[in-house]
Amino acid sequence: MTDPLWISLVKAVAVFAFTLTLVPLLVLAERRISAWMQYRVGPNRVGPFGTMQPLADLVKMLFKEELRPAGVPAFLFGAAPAIAAICSLFMMAVVPLGGTLEVGGHSTRMVVADVDVGVLAVLATSSLGVYGITLGGWASNSKYSLLGGLRSSAQMISYELTMGLSLLSVLVLCTKGNGFGSLSLSDIIAAQASSGVWNVVKCPLGFLLFTTAAFAETNRLPFDLPEAEPELVGGYHTEYSGMRWGLFQAAEYVNMLTLSGLVVTLFFDGYHFPWVHSLDAFGPIWFVLKLFFFVSLFIWLRATQPRLRYDQLMRFGWKVLLPVATVNALVTAFLVVLIK
């Protein structure tokens, strides 16, 4: 389906605005929910029930002085947070938010880029996002920041292997439905709709592996070693301030939204209402509801789980998750061939 240029621009701006609007709301929700779970008081001064706190934080970051340590490469120092933010936003462009929509006499899908290799685009872009964090640590001319960036690159590369293998099991399952031979996220949704069984039912272990790897990819507790404040004084963004620091934080939350959207797409039939496809006209609503369920899971674990040691994190990734993901992919492929 080829869209006119103006429709593509409208969809890109709409998804961009939708994602960036959710970020401050997500920050506020995390602070309020975490405070409630930990029996303490969250934001409650700025605006009714503290609802204007994200706006106050944004104003502070906009007017805070941008500091740059002496001796750092200025271009690379400024490019690092931009790379992290752009890569996280790009991943949202390939996630289908709904079905087909009529706009100005044209039929268009509710996805910015409905590419045939959507799964590969997600994996490639998430890999590029590592460069922003690593480059930020290196360009800061600080050993503490460099150590945080190196930890982050090692962690994210390690857990990307598990993520890729868990995705492989989904692709193998979709060869039985409309997604035959396709890496398109739209086709994966269509395959689940045609079979009437979600991938989380067919491959629950793949869902657990992908979700665990997603936590590590977003540097969230219990896998937030790149930002281990007691050890690294803030990690890779120690030397950043103002909106440059804000871009790193926004990239983390956008990654959380994007990976939650991928979990919904790959394992929970995307924007389809459960088993009642006559209600697919409300696809974006169902998608957002499913999305926030998994976002709340990110918040819940951050509020309740302790941080792992770095050796525990790497051992868990290489000696537990990776072998299990490999066996899961092989067993899934064997069963699909056997049933076929």
**Strand percent estimate:** under 5%
> How helix-rich are the residues, as a percent range?
55-70%
pLDDT averaged over residues: 85
Ends apart, CA distance between termini: 31 Å
Order of helices and strands: HHHEEHHHHHHHHH
Query: In this structure, how is the largest beta sheet organized?
Result: 2 strands, antiparallel
Counting helices, strands and paired strands, the structural category is mainly alpha
Low-confidence stretches: none
Total beta-strand segments? 2
Q: Per the principal axes of the C-alpha atoms, what is the gross shape?
A: globular
* Strand arrangement across the biggest beta sheet: 1-2
Rg on CA atoms, Å: 21 Å
Domain module count: 1
Count helical runs.
Answer: 12
Primary descriptors:
single chain; 340 residues; two-stranded antiparallel ribbon
Folded structure, characterized:
With 340 residues, the protein is mainly alpha-helical. It has one domain. The protein is 67% helix and 2% strand. It contains 12 helices and 2 strands. Strands 1-2 form a two-stranded antiparallel ribbon. Helix 1 (5-37) crosses helix 10 (242-267), helix 1 packs parallel to helix 11 (283-304) and helix 8 packs antiparallel against helix 12 (310-339). The chain is globular. The two termini are 31 Å apart.
